[in-house]
Amino acid sequence: MRARFPAGPLWAGPVLVLLLCARGHAARGEAYALVNARVVPVSGAAIDKGTLVMRDGLIEAVGADVRVPPDARVIDVKGMTVTPGLIDGFGGIGLPAPRGGGSGGAGGRGAASSPAPSGSPLAPQSLALDRIAAADALKARDAGITTALVIPKEGVLPGQSVLINLAGEKVEAMVLKEPAALHLHLATLSRTYPGSLMGTMAYARQSLLDAAHYRDEWKAYEASPRGKRRPRYDSALAAWQDVVAGRELLVVTASRENDVRRALDLADEFKVRLALAGAPQAFRVAELIKSRKLPLLVSVNFDPPRAAPLLGTPDDEKDRHAIEDAERNPAELHKAGVVFALVSGHAADFVAGVRKAIERGLPADVALRAVTLTPAEVLGVADRLGSLEAGKIADVVVWSGEPLTKDAKARMVFVDGQLYEPEDKPEPRRGEGSPSPLPRAASPAPEVQP
Q: Which CATH number covers residue 49?
């Protein structure tokens, strides 16, 4: 039966619409003020007792003498530290687990073979956005991660990544930049071409040559279409066009020292914008990277799965040295004066990997910048993300202790100005007969004032 509405004057509808609009505007304009905080803007000096005001999804003000707006929801975070949200600038947040075994792609080392993703392993036209599960992606906020660049680790040309902010129920509402970059993994494929690294480089070069020809063919046709046969549309070649034109970043995943040189040679030949991802051996060519000002997304996935050798048994000693080199890679790069971002590289625990880099000699303040402002700079979004500055997106984390330390927990996470409070996870159960851990001092609960 159709619902009946009470009769009323003709102006009731417009007035109701105006009231609802006003109510919606008030909700969107909700303000928060974090007071008595130790604020680490990253772009400037830390403020020991600061205030940060957020409104309508943006940072409105930050500083030691900021006036708290009368309509703001005031949260006293005395004893806590406030930082920008963490950015995972290269990983698989929200993607389904790959089917089958294997490594390579974004995670492996050596001439590893890479299993195909759900589509073709040579599919530059594929969009990572189409594969993200929103509910799975949002789980990363528990670790203080607010922004992520997402790309599958499988394949050689896995497609185009997307940069997302972790707020909202639908993936489309999370998008910050789509596409964010086109990706080339310097890996090989099992039982199909390219089955060697030489073949992978040859395929990449041919793809760029074909993309340039495709561009010229369409340009000539559009300039004078009459009497000419229309060129055939090719989605794979179309995906390369912004890279060829210099408008889109080409991110090359490099697992070996010589991969850095291969990627630079490719960029020089085709005059494309280049960033390097993974790079566990980058410290060995630090001077080259520094002189070329090569944007670097250094993985903290220090011990990724490795493909079994085709002949013989795994070399455990070689693998151990490779892990040790990867762990000290960030600290050595910093000593050499190389600026870089730290990324998960599809590691299960991004923050734990960052802590390991700190344990191996990377200064904590450098590590914090490497997971906030530097990845924003590499990905071309530092004008809106990566530091606590007025006018930037309100991606903010309130930590119970010193950020990136083992005992520090993300107590409050703001993404696009929306408050999310991670639940305390129970400590892992200890084995029978294990000594009980010493009681740990609880962090003071933030005081919220209406």
A: 2.30.40.10
Name the pairing type of β-strands 31-39 and 81-84.
parallel
Provide the terminal-to-terminal Cα distance of the chain, rounded to the nearest Å.
Answer: 44
Q: Name the residue range of residue 116's domain.
A: 103-385
Here the CATH number for the domain that contains residue 262 is: 3.20.20.140
The structure tokens listed for 282 are 């980058």
385 sits in which H/E element: none
Average pLDDT, the chain: 87
Residue 431 has pLDDT above 70, yes or no: no
In this structure, of 55-59, 248-252, 375-379, 426-430, the range with the lowest mean pLDDT score is 426-430
Within-domain flag for 220: yes
Tokens 């000096």 locate to: 45
What is this structure's pTM?
0.86
Render pLDDT for 34-54 as a digit per residue (tens, 0 to 9).
Answer: 999 999 999 999 999 999 999
Q: Do 49 and 121 share a domain, yes or no?
A: no
Nearest to 405 by CA among 342, 356, 343, 335: 356
Lookup: tokens for 197: 């690294």
The C-alpha R_g of the chain, in whole angstroms, comes to: 25
Based on the fold, state whether residues 370 and 268 are members of the same structural domain.
Answer: yes
Does residue 431 form part of some domain? no
Residue 91 domain-assigned (yes or no) = no
104: left (phi over 0), alpha (psi -120 to 50) or beta: left
